[in-house]
Amino acid sequence: MKMDDFVGGGGRGAAAQAADAAPGRKGRDNAMIEDQEALDLAADWADISQGLKKDLGPQLHSQWIKPIQVGSFCKETGTLDLFLPTEFSANWVADRFADRLSLAWKIARSEVRQVRITVHPRRRAMPELRMGGLPANDTGPMPAAQRQSTVPLSADAAVTGLDPSLTFAEFVSGSANVLAVNAAQRMAALETPQFSPLYLKGATGQGKTHLLHAIGHAYAAARPGARIFYCSAERFMIEFVQAMRSNEMLEFKARLRGFDLLLVDDIQFIIGKASTQEEFLHTIDALMSAGKRLVVAADRAPQALDGVEQRLLSRLSMGLVADIQPADIDLRRKILEHRLARFTATQVPADVIEFLARTINRNVRELVGGLNKLIAYAQLTGQPVSLQLAEEQLTDILSANRRRITIDEIQRMVCQFYRVDRTEMASKRRARAVVRPRQVAMYLAKVLTPRSYPEIGRKFGGRDHSTVIHAVRLIEELRTRDADMDGDVRTLLRQLED
């Protein structure tokens, strides 16, 4: 009997069996890596899709964004494939949403350099997309027998297109948006408003869409059975074209003007469409003469809408134009605290909330998105939320929002505040009157600039990074128990950010 018969059976040694098994293990490992990458892409897409739903509205999102399938990502070229079921839908999404999708993916994943939108290579059978009952890829009138289901702006339900999560109860108000909020609540009340239409003006991500949906919900609660419709200007134009194509303009007009409350978002996208502008103008006149209510939102004032004819500008301006200013620091704090109430299982330190509120200042959507991403990462990995984790995981958002405050500027401001000589920032002196201002300056440098601990240390006389870490942690701790220190830091933050 051969020795091999005693080792591993079948006459083969353990080493030989291990060698045979290695390719199998390698294949399984590669498969696991690919599965994890697919899961990560799917998780990122879920966040991006949810953000686009808020931007575009549930109807437009459901028709064009929801059917997108995430394909493969090529790390060498930085190209991510997104698939749609038909040529028409792929071309439509590429024409209108390519820039938004590309930007969203670049924010979510810095390694994505370009997004490619194409038809799925296997053309999987998927439900045909419909808008108001009309197939999105239809190229001509449908047979008369089918037309009862193709009327645009279908209003079988009393309330159409509203997101149930966007209510007044979930909207955080402050000095930056108080006029718009009060006007929105007045527009939703039973009493006839003194102004009509209401025009909400504000930059991207400041809450216009949220207020539109909130008006719809409040009006529906005040008037059960009222017919309410929310849509984007882009969808209005699409439905208008579809109605003309299917010879159903009379039905389109009748249904549109039959609503008690019409909410139109992103009105700036109606620019340059003469026939659509004309129809929208007639719709405004019909609603106003019937005592019905109209609320529109845009990212600029009516007078700044280039390519809009004067008659339409006059109608849009004849009510109340309510401006929504960028959220100030106090409002950003309130928004984060309000949002944080949903995540009672996750502890978020006060210094992290302060850091996010001060650093993410471009718009509210990015602010809330940053908090959501941070908490989700902490929950999925089991790591505690900290200032360091926020800096590591929100790099793209933070760098896009930070004003370019320099360490030199911070040192100069701190020295003026504490009345110490500028040379003390780099000196070796250990007197308390010098050390504390120096530590405050290091803390502010970490909070207000993208510089690393070693880089900050070099600007303070070539100090080691561990000295900077100690200073940052010490000031963080002092702020929680020393009101004077917290007041000093708040004052310096205001002065540096003004």
UniProtKB/TrEMBL annotation:
Q: Extract one GO cellular component term from the record.
A: plasma membrane
UniProtKB keywords: ATP-binding, Cytoplasm, DNA replication, DNA-binding, Lipid-binding, Nucleotide-binding
**Bilayer-spanning residue ranges:** none
Q: Name one GO biological process term.
A: regulation of DNA replication
Which residue intervals make up region (Domain II)?
A: 121-160
Q: Which domain of life is it from?
A: Bacteria
Stretches of Low complexity bias are at 14-24
**What Gene3D superfamilies does the record point to?**
1.10.1750.10, 1.10.8.60, 3.30.300.180, P-loop containing nucleotide triphosphate hydrolases
Q: What is its main location?
A: cytoplasm
Q: Which first-to-last residue range defines the signal peptide? A: none
Positions of the Chromosomal replication initiator DnaA C-terminal domain: 406-475
Residues noted as binding ATP in the record, renumbered to the chain: 205, 207-209
Subcellular localization: Cytoplasm
The record's subunit annotation is:
Oligomerizes as a right-handed, spiral filament on DNA at oriC.
- Name the family: Belongs to the DnaA family.
Say what the protein does.
Plays an essential role in the initiation and regulation of chromosomal replication. ATP-DnaA binds to the origin of replication (oriC) to initiate formation of the DNA replication initiation complex once per cell cycle. Binds the DnaA box (a 9 base pair repeat at the origin) and separates the double-stranded (ds)DNA. Forms a right-handed helical filament on oriC DNA; dsDNA binds to the exterior of the filament while single-stranded (ss)DNA is stabiized in the filament's interior.
What is the name attached to this protein's record? Answer: Chromosomal replication initiator protein DnaA
Q: Which organism is it from?
A: Novosphingobium fuchskuhlense
